[in-house]
Amino acid sequence: MSTLNLRNNTLHLEQLPLTDLAARFGTPLYLYSRATLEANYLAFDRAFADVPHQVCFAVKANSNIAVLNVLARLGAGFDIVSGGELERVLAAGGDPAKVVFSGLGKSEAEMQRALELGIACFNVESEAELDRLNAVAARLGKRAPVSLRVNPDVDAQTHPYISTGLKENKFGVDIERAPAVYRRMVELGHLDPVGIDCHIGSQLTTTTPFSDALDRVLAMIDRLAADGIALHHIDIGGGLGVRYRDETPPTPADYAAVLLPRLQARGLKVYMEPGRAISATAGVLLTRVEFLKPTEHKDFAIIDAAMNDLIRPALYDAWMDIVPVTPHSDDTPERSYDIVGPVCETGDFLGKQRPLRLRAGDLLAVTGAGAYGFVMSSNYNTRGRAAEVIVDGDQAWQVRRRETVADLLALESLLP
Length: 416
Ligand SMILES: Cc1ncc(COP(=O)(O)O)c(C=O)c1O
Ligand SMILES: N[C@@H](CCCC[NH3+])C(=O)O
What we know:
Elements: E1 4-7, E2 10-13, E3 16-17, H1 18-25, E4 29-33, H2 34-47, E5 53-58, H3 65-73, E6 77-80, H4 83-91, E7 99-101, H5 108-117, E8 121-124, H6 127-140, E9 144-151, E10 173-174, H7 178-188, E11 191-197, H8 208-226, E12 233-235, H9 252-263, E13 269-272, H10 276-279, E14 283-294, E15 299-303, H11 312-316, E16 322-324, E17 334-340, E18 349-357, E19 363-367, E20 387-392, E21 395-400, H12 405-409
Parallel strand pairs: 4-20, 5-6, 5-13, 6-7, 7-8, 8-9, 9-10, 9-11, 11-12, 12-13, 15-17
Antiparallel strand pairs: 1-2, 2-3, 4-14, 14-15, 14-19, 16-19, 17-18, 20-21
The structure holds pyridoxal-5'-phosphate and lysine.
Family: Belongs to the Orn/Lys/Arg decarboxylase class-II family. LysA subfamily.
Pathway: Amino-acid biosynthesis; L-lysine biosynthesis via DAP pathway; L-lysine from DL-2,6-diaminopimelate: step 1/1
Protein name: Diaminopimelate decarboxylase
């Protein structure tokens, strides 16, 4: 997976050797390929060309404003979950009229800002949220376009932390309650029921849960129509997985081929909210081996990236590929390495038992790091966050500088 290619015994991202990028920008470093981002976005856009649609990139997957700008230039909309993400979309030149606002704890201030900007839709996740949105809209003398996020009780067959469409999950409203909730929406007076929304989980590797969920949502659209509530759009959420190791996820074209026959005759506009499937394979985390540490039990490679830079392995036990930037020939012995960071936690690893030929000073590339990578990073152990760079052909642009310790200290103050 990923857009890396090996030339002259050195991994390149597009046309640039990772060794040069490390020398120029330092490590740890997030690198994104513009061409891959664009190709992944366009794969969704083209797959749904036969129906009116809007691809809304899930900003939570990668919220760098230059990344969002690359997608906005292609006509992307955005799925946001906070006022902060909304400001990022604006800073990136995104069109608020193509924004859908998901998330189950929207504040009044977030609702107000989104209403003033005229976003496409609020994906509402509870009845209490409906009341709050109605009150904010009434105060502003506006009407809020609403889509109810229904929970279809479908098992996404993914990691339990990232499954969202089961009855026991906190997301959405039980689909059986939808008719009553839409009636209430109409009665409240300042809400326009425009759509229905469903997102069942992330990193799905088969199409069956998507089609099961879609069937349930379409049946509900028919029930609502019989009740006099005619919806204009369906939001099918995100969740399409990528290959990290040996998964064989459907492509956007496979996904569309399963869903489109059910959608085509309906005249509904189709919104979708892919995050991972657009940005994961476009990104790499570049890191350097600080030390090799053989012990009686294990061989450790201690690298300059850590769980604060990329938390997926520690949080979900996620497997991410780790590849040498300049592979060694046989004179360096292959050993089974645990690839660990400098953070004081046993859970601080990026990979375990990886057969690699390593020397101190080597560069390693962690692939698939363009989604839920930098965005989930933290300052744990007072580590400044990595820089982010976009590679475009033979050009590289630093789009976020590395945080210094001075940056971090500047946010705090002593008691008087
Ligand atoms: C409401 C919603 N939409 C879209 C996404 C994006 O998901 P993914 O990155 O799996 O496509 C998520 C995250 O799972 C989400 O919660
Ligand atoms: N952060 C998760 C996915 C969560 C999706 C957000 N709803 C991951 O890295 O896989």
